[in-house]
Each structure stands twice: as C-alpha cells, then as structure tokens.
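Saturday, quiet lab. Running sequence design on the structure tokens for the scaffold JK sent over.
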C-alpha cells in the first residue's frame, strides 16, 4: 500500500493573532491530485503557476511541493525546464487513493444498455458490439476476449488511441499496432488473474515496453455464473479513470445479462 508521506506532517503557523494548523501531507496529496487532473485534461506539463491560485499559495511554495513529489517518484520533469507530468507511480497512487469513483446516472445506464443490446443475433455479435460500445463511450480502444472460443478476441477503436498526443511518434505507433495485432500477447495481458470487479494496469505494470505510455482497465464477464472472458479499454495513462472504471463495471453487468439468453 502506497503512502504519500513526505517530511513533516503538520505544523502550526502564527498568523495575526490566530494559530493556523497546516497539514502538509494532505496538502501534498491535494497538489498531486490537482496536477494529475490538469495533465489528464490538457496533456501538457503542469507548471507551479497553473495551480498556485487554486490553493491560495505562492508559485514558489507549489514548486517546493512539486520538488518533494519528484523526489518521491510521483511526478517528473519531462524537459530541463517547464512543468511536471505524472509518473506510473503517481498515476497508481491517484487511482488507488485520490480519485472518487463517479456514480453513473440513470440516463448513462440506459444509454449503455441500449447500445449494448443493438445488432445482436449471435454470441459473436454481442461480443463484437460490446468492444465497439467500450470504444465509443471511452474514446479509446475497446477489447473483448472470450475464453471458450479459442481465446477469440474482438477489438474496436485502435485509431482512437493513435489520435492521442502521447502517440505522435511513428516508432511508438508501429510498436503498439504490432502488439495489438499479436493476439496471443494481448490475450496474455488481458487474461491475467485478478480479484475484484475491475483491474487497472498502468504503464510499466503491463510488463510490455510497447505499452509503456498506456493504461489498461480490465473487467470480467460471465456466462451461467462461470468466468467466460474479459472486457478491456486500452488508452493512454492520461485517461479519466474515475469515469471509465464505473462504466466498465456497468458494461460487464449488462453483458452478463445479455449472455443469459445464449
């Protein structure tokens, strides 16, 4: 379990005639969360000036916090000068401890249910359509594997990944596409055992150099209460985890219901 504990936890500062308590550990967590949120949204390194006003702190104070987060391995400098971007470790801490998973509203659930039920006549239709739905709602690549059909795999939306700023390099694009086309290697990653409803693999956790800039969010689905396959969304590490994780959980539930008819 990761713990973000850097230096002194709490100090008391005399301001005017009042003693003000400062919880530095909570402040660092908040700054880390804000920096990652901004990078996810804008895809550009985050500078101290970008978030200083948000915390009513000076840019120098934010720079000091950034420096501490650098030393602890949660942020890094992509260039000699400029702002910071999250590391694999930073994203892992963010996913495990900082995000608040969003609850899907009824309208979102109905939209997903309707999309998942379209064009279904055969089992293959249901699985292929599900990969398309995942891609449409996440704007990344949707993948579905089915264990009982010789590890059959369906995927949609590979081009959506390549539209992301992280994949402008031609060599990175070529390596990633080659991996996706190598179904056995992709299945080995997606079909790993895990506990819980959803598993999030970030960057180096995938154990695959071609995916060093990617994250993979995986959920399982069942047929007659038996594990039958996996759903996954593949995208950049810079993805909106708090929105995508609950959507993957719900798509898994919907697919379970659809498969009851086969």
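Result came back. Writing it out in full:
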């Amino acid at each position: 379990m990761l713990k973000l504990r850097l230096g002194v936890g709490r100090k008391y500062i005399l301001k005017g005639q009042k003693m003000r308590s400062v919880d530095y550990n909570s402040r660092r967590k908040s700054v880390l969360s804000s920096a990652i949120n901004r990078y996810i949204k804008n895809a550009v390194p985050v500078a101290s000036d970008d978030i200083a006003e948000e915390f009513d702190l000076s840019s120098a104070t934010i720079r000091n916090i950034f420096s501490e987060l650098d030393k602890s391995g949660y942020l890094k400098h992509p260039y000699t000068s400029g702002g910071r971007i999250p590391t694999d470790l930073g994203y892992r801490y963010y996913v495990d401890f900082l995000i608040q998973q969003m609850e899907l509203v009824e309208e979102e659930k109905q939209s997903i249910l309707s999309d998942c039920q379209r064009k279904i006549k055969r089992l293959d239709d249901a699985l292929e359509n599900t990969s398309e739905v995942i891609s449409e709602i996440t704007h990344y690549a949707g993948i579905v594997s089915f264990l009982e059909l010789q590890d059959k795999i369906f995927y949609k939306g590979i081009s959506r990944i390549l539209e992301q700023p992280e994949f402008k390099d031609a060599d990175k694009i070529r390596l990633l596409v080659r991996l996706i086309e190598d179904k056995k290697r992709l299945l080995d990653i997606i079909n790993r055992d895990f506990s819980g409803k959803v598993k999030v693999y970030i960057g180096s956790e995938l154990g695959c150099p071609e995916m060093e800039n990617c994250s993979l969010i995986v959920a399982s689905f069942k047929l007659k209460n038996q594990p039958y396959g996996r759903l996954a969304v593949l995208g950049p590490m810079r993805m909106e985890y708090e929105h995508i994780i609950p959507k993957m959980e719900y798509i898994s539930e919907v697919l379970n219901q659809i498969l009851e008819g086969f």
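Notes for JK: The chain has ten helices and nine strands. Residues 99 and 210 are 27 Å apart (CA to CA). Ask whether to fix the surface positions before the next round.
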